[in-house]
Amino acid sequence: MIGALLALVLTTGPSGLGAHGEDLLVREKPEVKLSGFFRVRGDLLHNLDLDRGTTPSGLPLFAVPLSDPLGQSLAVADMRLRTDLAIYAPFAAAAVKVRADLIDDLVLGSTPALSPGTGNAPTPAASPGQLPASLFRIKRAYGEVLTPIGYFAAGRMGNQWGLGMLSNGGDCLDCNLGDAADRLAFVTALAGHLWAVAYDFSAVGPTPLRKDGQRALVLDNAVDVKSVTFAWMNVRDDVSRRRRTRAGKLTLEYGAFVSHRWQDFDAPESYLPVSTVRPLAPASVMRRGYRALAADAWLRLTAPSFRVELEGAMLFAESEQASLLPGVLLRDKVQSAQFGAALETQLGANDARFVGGLNAGYASGDPAPGFGAFPRGATPAATGELDGAQVNVPRDNRVDNFRFHPDYRVDRILWAELVGTVTDALYVRPWGRLRLLDFSSTQLNLKSAATVSRTIFAPSTPNNDAALGMELWAALTWESKDGFDVLAEYAVLFPFGAFNNPTQGLTATPAQLGRVRLAWKF
Q: Could you tell me the pTM of the whole model?
């Protein structure tokens, strides 16, 4: 059983239900392994407000220079030091793993201290908009063990699945977020497949301290948000896939999961800002009746000369009572039905001088104004706004826009910067990669892509037009097997009618982005 599990585990990503346990071997003495990366990157953003004036709220689509609202360019640089620590126990297939970002997207120069004779020196002091936690964040901490009946893990662990369209562990060099789950997970091998079950502590509260002032107490388990996931997979590790590819064989991998999440009651007074703070009481608890179901299927076909990978997801949810005010009840339920899919293809072998492919994606939409990518509060957006809540009870009780994970990026400007993630859209992305130089330990590659995007519901856009834009992207990458990588990329977005502003008589103009990234991997 252990051998079969080791042979099957991995390959839906570096973290998640299908990606734990491959390194659990019985060792004669304790072992410690440290890996990670340090990255420094700088962005130059030009005209990301598209010169199309303001939305009905009086704000531009993107930030503009504070001292010159007519200015065009913003520059920013940040850095991250990521460490992944694995501590392996002796005489057992067990380990404790920790991910700590010692510096997490800290903006260079955002925390200066100036004292006589020392100049400007970054310090851990906080400044507005820059939290002290950005200097040290524990992202994951969990234990895992391989037993004769399967693999077991407990703690806060990464949550990656398939392409990362829905659940993304944020493991890539340019990722910014990443999902983590407080989870109990069990995976076993049966009939040539992996079968997994997981229970997630998705949210609890309120959590007052106990008498010792150290430990917390969950005040009412009825208000907890709980999740249960079942997954079924047939996957191979990277070594096995490469070996089959060299032998000229096709490799078919696939997996699916179903997840159920629920919350019976809620105590919104414990987390919402209130004018008068009062002790929590039974009157603070209200019926929520929240139920959600997510299903996702993933497939990858790998051959010596091509790769096709596809992921599709469905999400259904309802809340019997969406009100946040105890004693103020809504008559109707709030419901949701969301659908998303992503396709990635590659023509040509990985080691070929030139490879290319066609990627595409779909995210269901909602006819309410604004994209609903990251709405602030429950206030519905006015027509012409870029974002806003997609529900407006009692007139509109549905939220149907599917949102890609922000770390699954298909461009650099439109979805990555202006909207924040892919939602309410259909996109097509042809791409290519040309190897310019190839040394024993280093490669110089030229990569390029064009992303054409269109919204599903035209009222979601600022100009009630479904045509969003076309973005062209090119990058030079210096990739070293010794661990030092350099990336220089440029993107230009040509906005279409969706971003014009007929009210102010303005036509959207192209936006540009330049980025340089240095990375040291260890």
A: 0.88
